[in-house]
Specification:
Number of helices: 6
Structural class: mainly alpha
Strand content: 5-15%
Strand order of the largest sheet: 1-2
Order of helices and strands: HHHEEHHHEE
Distance between the termini: 38 Å
Helix content: 40-55%
Shape: globular
């Protein structure tokens, strides 16, 4: 029988792992425990762990080395892709208060023009922020800074 996971459990796990990264439990360059170990620790299904790890990756806190594992990103490491640059810029603007909880974010088209990227790249950046739990999408209306943004 499949393991049942509490609704929103990945957000709690994301917060716990984020705190371990920021407080130095997992220092820059260190390997994050594997999925199986995290599943056992948090008593959740593998998909829940993967969702939490994807959120940390979208936030730029961890990197993935295919076939090796996930590692805490060194603060000196810069975003690699154009969508990571756009996401990092928006994340910074949210962190400094340029965009407050509930504020609408620029559209994909506006971001594409502003950053000189394709709409697909702008969309990927916005999806990264959604995955990280910073932004919510209201279909037909746009994307907004979440009311409960972790600061």
């Amino acid at each position: 029988m499949a393991r049942r996971t509490e609704w929103g459990a990945y957000l709690k796990i994301t917060d716990a792992l984020r705190q371990r990264i920021t407080n130095g439990t997992y220092p820059p360059g260190s390997r994050i425990p594997g999925e199986a170990a995290l599943c056992a620790e948090f008593s959740v299904a593998r998909n829940t762990i993967r969702r939490a790890l994807s959120a940390l990756h979208a936030e730029g806190l961890i990197t993935v080395r295919t076939g090796v594992g996930r590692f805490v990103r060194d603060s000196a490491t810069q975003p690699r892709t154009r969508s990571e640059h756009v996401a990092a810029n928006l994340r910074h603007q949210i962190e400094i208060g340029r965009y407050q909880p509930g504020d609408a974010l620029p559209s994909e088209a506006q971001l594409a023009r502003r950053h000189g990227v394709s709409r697909f790249t702008a969309r990927a950046a916005l999806i990264d922020l959604e995955t990280a739990g910073l932004v919510t999408c209201v279909h037909g209306k746009g994307r907004y800074v979440r009311q409960d943004v972790p600061r």
